[in-house]
């Protein structure tokens, strides 16, 4: 409740700053005056939390009818508000006003604790939870608590199964609007995030952040058992199974066991013959997405992995690792019969045929 009152008072203060309306109708909570009774009634919704206008698609509620009308543009796809600087279009006027601050540099919302400034009131409110551990919004199904009401609403869709945002091209549905926006870039081809080192473009900012670690060498995720570091959290999670003997996923065809479900899914394509990833240039198909990504570099010429000693570049990380052994002298593969060492496993396999007299 304190969070809600804080939001309401902040909205009221900002509203008072931008519009001073003197009149005979006064709010008994904040003493703001209005010239029309209907305006006072709408204003009171700030203090009571009442939201009498509801969207018939996703059931989101609004204090003002104008807010509902602007919201409905999300479902219709209409974007009637356009930025006069960059021509970017928006479904809501408030979003346009917020966007224009990108060009003007305006940050009208300031934290009264650390003085950090924000373009949006929501950004300030989210930030203030750093200084407070309050989580006033609780899920009535699983009791998980949230600091913001809209996060609770989004979370509740996990239980209800509601996916109010739908792609108008392929009809895929999403729980969150940003999920739909990111998905639509698959159809439009838009890649708004670009690496300032190699100019590679990405649909999602998270993809760019992960990619930049190739250039920086940053590995922020570390195993607590062996201290091995990883550039991606999912790689750390996969690695942690090395320290466990559990193989809970089993192939129902050949009974081979796997530590990860995704490894089992990939393996099952050996039996089914499925190759779900296809190159849009030459139509070659692959069982794994990583195989497709590496293959596409044949067409693009991209070589994102660079040796920090001689600057030679490679299209695959594994090729860079093998190459670096030239500089380090490392020979990690050893013959268990004569102890001869090799830089590559393939060379060790070839060598072992000397002892077995096997002819390939």
Task: Summarize the helices and strands and which ones pair or pack.
Layout: H1 2-18, E1 25-26, E2 33-34, H2 37-48, E3 53-54, E4 61-62, H3 65-76, E5 81-82, E6 89-90, H4 93-104, E7 109-110, E8 117-118, H5 121-128, E9 137-138, E10 145-146, H6 149-160, E11 165-166, E12 173-174, H7 177-188, E13 193-194, E14 201-202, H8 205-216, E15 221-222, E16 229-230, H9 233-240, E17 249-250, E18 257-258, H10 261-272, E19 277-278, E20 285-286, H11 289-300, E21 305-306, E22 313-314, H12 317-328, E23 333-334, E24 341-342, H13 345-356
Antiparallel strand pairs: 1-2, 3-4, 5-6, 7-8, 9-10, 11-12, 13-14, 15-16, 17-18, 19-20, 21-22, 23-24
What does this structure look like?
This protein has 360 residues and is α+β, with helices and mostly antiparallel strands. The chain has 13 helices and 24 strands. The strands form twelve sheets. A two-stranded antiparallel ribbon has the order 1-2. Strands 3-4 form a two-stranded antiparallel sheet. Strand 23 and strand 24 form a beta hairpin. The longest helix is centred in the N-terminal third of the chain and has 17 residues, at 2-18. The radius of gyration is 29 Å and the shape is elongated. The termini are far apart.
């Amino acid at each position: 409740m304190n969070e809600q009152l804080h939001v309401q008072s902040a909205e009221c203060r900002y509203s008072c700053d931008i519009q001073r309306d003197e009149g005979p109708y006064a709010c008994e909570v904040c003493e703001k005056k209005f010239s029309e009774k209907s305006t006072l009634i709408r204003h009171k919704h700030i203090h009571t939390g009442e939201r009498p206008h509801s969207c018939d698609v996703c059931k989101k509620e609004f204090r003002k009818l104008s807010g509902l009308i602007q919201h409905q543009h999300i479902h219709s796809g209409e974007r009637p508000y356009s930025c006069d600087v960059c021509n970017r279009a928006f479904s809501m006027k408030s979003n346009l006003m917020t966007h224009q601050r990108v060009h003007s540099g305006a940050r009208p919302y300031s934290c009264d604790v650390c003085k950090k400034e924000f373009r949006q009131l929501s950004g300030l409110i989210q930030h203030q939870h750093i200084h407070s551990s309050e989580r006033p919004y609780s899920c009535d199904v699983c009791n998980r608590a949230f600091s913001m009401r809209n996060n609770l609403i989004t979370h509740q869709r996990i239980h209800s199964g509601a996916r109010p945002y739908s792609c108008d091209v392929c009809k895929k549905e999403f729980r969150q609007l940003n999920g739909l926006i990111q998905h639509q870039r698959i159809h439009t081809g838009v890649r708004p995030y670009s690496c300032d080192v190699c100019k590679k473009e990405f649909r999602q900012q998270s993809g760019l952040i992960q990619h930049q670690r190739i250039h920086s060498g940053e590995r922020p995720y570390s195993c607590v058992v062996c201290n091995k570091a990883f550039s991606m959290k999912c790689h750390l999670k996969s690695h942690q199974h090395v320290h466990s003997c559990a193989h809970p996923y089993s192939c129902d065809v050949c009974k081979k066991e796997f530590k990860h479900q995704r490894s089992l899914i990939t393996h099952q394509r050996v039996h089914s013959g499925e190759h779900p990833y296809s190159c849009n240039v030459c139509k070659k198909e692959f069982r794994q997405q990583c195989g497709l990504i590496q293959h596409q570099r044949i067409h693009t010429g991209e070589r994102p992995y660079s040796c920090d000693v001689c600057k030679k570049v490679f299209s695959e990380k594994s090729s860079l690792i093998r190459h670096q052994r030239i500089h380090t002298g490392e020979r990690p593969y050893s013959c268990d019969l004569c102890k001869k060492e090799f830089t590559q496993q393939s060379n060790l396999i070839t060598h072992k045929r000397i002892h077995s007299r096997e002819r390939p």
